[in-house]
Design goal:
Chain B: It is found in: Cytoplasm; Mitochondrion outer membrane. Chain B: InterPro entries: QTRTD1, Queuine_tRNA-ribosyltrfase, TGT-like_sf, tRNA_ribo_trans-like. The complex is a heterodimer of chains A (409) and B (427). By secondary structure, chain A is of the alpha/beta class. Chain A has helices at residues 15-25, 75-80, 90-95, 99-104, 107-112, 124-130, 156-166, 185-204, 223-233, 252-265, 280-288, 298-303, 336-340, 343-349, 355-372, 377-382, 403-408; strands at residues 5-7, 32-39, 45-50, 55-58, 60-62, 85-88, 117-120, 133-136, 141-144, 151-154, 170-172, 212-217, 240-243, 272-274, 293-295, 307-310, 313-316, 385-386, 395-396. Chain A has a domain at 60-296: Queuine tRNA-ribosyltransferase-like (TIM Barrel). Chain A contains 17 helices and 19 strands. Chain A is globular and about 60 Å long. By secondary structure, chain B is of the alpha/beta class. Chain B folds into two domains: 7-278, Queuine tRNA-ribosyltransferase-like (TIM Barrel); 286-417, no CATH class. In chain B, helix 6 links the parallel strand 9 and strand 10 (193-198). The radius of gyration of chain B is 21 Å and the shape is globular. Classes of the chains: A alpha/beta (409), B alpha/beta (427). The interface between A and B is large, with 43 and 46 residues.
């Protein structure tokens, strides 16, 4: 069931689209999206996302370098693994070492010595997931600093100010984050507030010519709320949109529905960033649903526990069964770890040195960034997708992924 | 005496003691060599701590000999036995020679477990007792290029009795003889060399006896054990080394175990030592510090003026009293390094050491390292290990050059000048 390919940007010539297209192609813009190929069966597309530091090929998986470092991997290694954009966390870096110091160091790029692109989140999610939440008001989020117990207010203005100091290529708005398992009026309140906060963030951005501010679509698992949010936020002229409030433990069926609803109503010519989504199968499905950018701590975090990601799931290197296994983690993988080391050696090394973690991290990033995402641009051109869903059934075929595997995963 | 191919060729011998030269005839094919004085590449199970191949190979001039220890390897005997092709291949090590020692110099082990027939090592799962048979079985599956014979070195504690010291000498000689028997009858060890181990604690007569006796055996070189940092002060160490080397053949290399501090290395080279273990950069890394001591003695008029005018001197740590007798205190900072966790480095945007060409200094600043340490990030260990390794090996290069040009005193002066020196405090 090969898909018919459309190559090159399919330019819609209605006046308003023509205008917005002009905007995205304008040379003054710090972001340009060029659609290289689109699947006519699914909503998948392959693009060139042109950002200030370099061009990023989408679909893209962005590794998370929380505190201005990617868990034991040097920036050279990261570049070597094909990473073109990675994440920094505004909350963590805003605490330590703080925006003033990073500004002195020539921004986060200068501080880490990363020459490619950076995306920073707003700090909103960490505040909800990590710290004692004092209060969310219209002003912002008040919380207690874990380092000195002082009360801090993170407002849209403060978040943008920190992100301006960090100098990231893409900044996220501060949104009112609510877990997707929450229901009731809080969800609606958060959605409307996020819209108001978006406007405040846009106003607060000191560097619109260098830093791209993305909006974050909220609305929980409620289709009406999502739709309202989409209608409102797409009226704002932001360079890109994120789909937020998902990947937080909700049912998969609800999850897909919200993703596809969102991409249905987001402009085609702007990038769509699905926040916090990282398991390989989720990536595959969400690419088919029209998402371009993904991030997740999972691959790097799980590596430190000795869990290596492979096309058929994951491999717990520390388990006894690999003590004498002389194959590499994945015989088909071309990463530095698989080219040189066996499972047996890595298994043994975990008892002696932290470098064992680094080997797995390198492999997992390689897997996620280049292979695991399943669709290279070539594959977007010749693929179709398998889904098991109550409502519809799309067929997914990759040369090395069998039906059996999909059922397992 | 069975011919060993390993041979030390001298280019200089200074005052009959310090030796500069090349250790030739290394490796299974006898084609490899190593400059002395020099150090081995310290590893955990074949991996330089914190480093993968990419990060390791940012370093140029790595030692040609990698050190592995039975304390890391012993617990994996079964796997290696099944693997059959030797440790080097198992670890994915290419282009390096392999030296196998008994203990990890950076991990002093509990005492009291040595017997007449056994020594113990500690793996991740606990104590592993080694008889000569087991020790040699391990060497056969590791297949190093050379190894030290099994030895009883438990003499470094303060209250070691004379009787105990004598026992360690006797046992070590017995172990050596037994190892050699097995060695000579093992095809797997064809082309592999053995180093005898000289014991004797801090007792001169025992040291001499051990050296004399060991030198009678067909070994390719000598390890000096029981002299590690913290076991005695340098004066005594120098004395003992001088006495030992008198008994040893000139053209066989001498490896000093457990000594790595720059000042001690210099003193021991002067006393006649050739090879050292490079665990010191690892210890510095583990305490979040960076080696910064100066070993550059090439004339530089600009520098001279700077120093004359009391120009910016990098803070050295608190002076370590020479000869601290506490082996456990090897975690203490020395005057050869800076503590990057210190607040003063928070906004210091200079590289760790100005002029250092390592990956860390070329790409990163003190402020970033400070941040990584404060936030407990893994990258701190990676970057510090790269720098500390580069700096340490640079020191050995400078040492050889100083010997070649008769400038050892100048080097000593430069290296030691940091001690108790100007501490720049930012208030």
């Amino acid at each position: 069931m090969a898909a018919v390919i459309e190559c090159g940007a399919d330019i819609d010539t209605t006046p308003e689209n023509h205008m917005s297209l002009k905007k995205t192609l304008s040379s003054a813009s710090p972001l340009t999206l060029r659609i290289v190929a689109e699947c006519s069966v699914t909503k998948a597309r392959a693009c060139d996302l042109v950002l200030p530091h370099c061009t990023v090929s989408t679909p893209v998986f962005m590794p998370v370098g929380t505190q201005g470092t990617l868990k034991g991997i040097t920036v050279d290694q990261l570049e070597g693994l094909g990473c073109q954009i990675c994440l920094g966390n505004t909350y963590h870096l805003g605490m330590r070492p703080g925006p003033d110091l990073i500004e002195k160091a020539n921004g986060l790029h200068g501080f880490m010595n990363w020459k490619r692109n950076l995306l920073t989140d707003s700090g909103g999610f960490q505040m909800v997931s990590l710290v004692e939440l004092s209060e969310v008001t219209e002003e912002g989020v008040k919380f207690k600093s874990p380092y000195d117990g002082k009360e801090i207010l993170l407002s849209p203005e403060k978040s943008i100010s920190i992100q301006n100091s960090l100098g990231s290529d893409i900044m996220m708005q501060l949104d009112d984050v609510v877990s997707s398992t929450v229901t009731g009026p809080r969800v609606e309140e958060a959605m409307h507030r996020s819209i108001r906060w978006l406007d405040r963030c846009i106003a607060a951005n000191k560097n619109p010519d260098k830093q791209n501010l993305f909006a974050i679509i909220q609305g929980g698992l409620n289709a009406d709320l999502r739709k309202t949010c989409l209608d409102e936020m797409t009226k704002r002229d932001v360079p890109g949109f994120a789909i937020g409030g998902l990947s937080g433990g909700e049912e998969k069926d609800d999850f897909w529905r919200m993703v596809t609803l969102s991409t249905d109503h987001l402009p085609r010519e702007k990038p769509r960033y699905l926040m916090g989504v990282g398991y390989a199968v989720d990536l595959v499905v969400c690419v088919a649903l029209g998402c371009d950018m993904f991030d997740c701590v999972f691959p790097t975090r799980t590596a430190r526990f000795g869990s290596a990601l492979v096309p058929w799931g994951s491999l717990q290197v520390k388990h006894k069964q690999y003590a004498k296994d002389l194959q590499p983690i994945d015989p088909d993988c071309k990463c530095p770890t698989c080219k040189r080391h066996s499972r047996a050696y890595l298994h043994a090394l975990f008892k002696s040195d932290t470098a064992a973690m680094h080997h797995i991290t390198i492999h997992n990033i390689a897997y996620q960034v280049s292979a695991g995402i399943a669709y290279s641009r070539v594959k977007v051109v010749i693929m179709c997708v398998f889904f098991f869903f109550t409502e519809f059934f799309i067929c997914f075929k990759r040369a090395d992924v069998s039906e059996k595997h999909l059922l397992q995963v | 005496m069975a011919g060993s191919r390993m041979k030390l060729e001298f280019s200089r011998v200074i005052q009959g003691r310090s030796r500069l030269g090349v250790l030739k005839g290394l490796g299974r094919n006898g084609q490899d060599s190593m400059e002395v004085p020099g150090c081995l590449l310290y590893t955990h199970f074949g991996t330089v701590p914190h480093l993968t191949q990419d990060t390791l190979h940012t370093l140029s001039n790595l030692p040609s000999v990698t050190q592995v220890t039975l304390s890391n390897i012993a617990e994996h005997q079964e796997v290696l036995e099944e693997f059959k092709d030797g440790f080097r291949k198992f670890a994915g090590l290419h282009d390096t020679l392999l030296y196998c020692s008994l203990h990890d110099p950076a991990a002093p082990c509990p005492t009291g477990y040595t017997t007449n027939k056994t020594v113990s090592v500690w793996g991740s799962g606990g104590r592993i007792e080694l008889t000569v048979a087991k020790f040699m079985a391990l060497q056969k599956i590791v297949q190093p290029d050379w190894y030290q014979s099994m030895a009883d070195g438990e003499t470094w504690q303060n209250n070691t009795s004379r009787k105990r010291v004598r026992k360690s000498v006797d046992r070590t000689l017995t172990h050596l003889d037994e190892c050699l028997v097995v060695h000579q009858n093992s095809q797997e060890l064809d082309g592999v060399e053995v180093f005898g181990v000289v014991e004797g604690g801090d007792i001169l007569e025992e040291r001499v006896r051990s050296a004399r006796e060991t030198a009678k055996r067909p070994v390719a070189g000598f390890c000096l054990d029981g002299l590690q940092t913290g076991s005695m002060d340098q004066t005594l160490r120098t004395q003992l080394i001088a006495a030992v080397t008198k008994e040893l053949p000139e053209d066989k290399p001498r490896l000093l175990q457990g000594v790595g501090r720059p000042d001690e290395v210099l003193a021991c080279v002067e006393a006649g030592m050739d090879l050292f273990e490079s665990f010191f950069p690892f210890q510095v890394t583990e305490r979040g510090c960076a080696l910064c001591f100066d070993f550059n003695i090439s004339p530089d008029p600009e520098r001279a003026v700077l120093e004359l005018n009391g120009g910016e001197r990098d803070t050295a740590g608190e002076t370590q009293p020479n000869g601290d007798h506490n082996l456990d205190d090897q975690t203490q900072m020395t005057s050869f390094e800076i503590d990057l966790k210190d607040k003063r480095y928070q906004d210091d945007f200079r590289p760790l050491v100005e002029g250092c060409g390592c990956y860390c200094c070329k790409n990163h600043q003190r402020a970033y390292l400070h941040h990584l340490l404060v936030t407990n990030e893994l990258l701190a260990g990676v970057l510090l290990m790269i720098h500390n390794t580069a700096h340490y090996h640079g020191f050995f290069g400078a040492l050889r050059e100083a010997l070649a040009n008769d400038q050892l005193d100048l080097l000593k002066d430069r290296v030691l000048r940091g001690r108790g020196g100007q501490t720049e405090r930012k208030e």
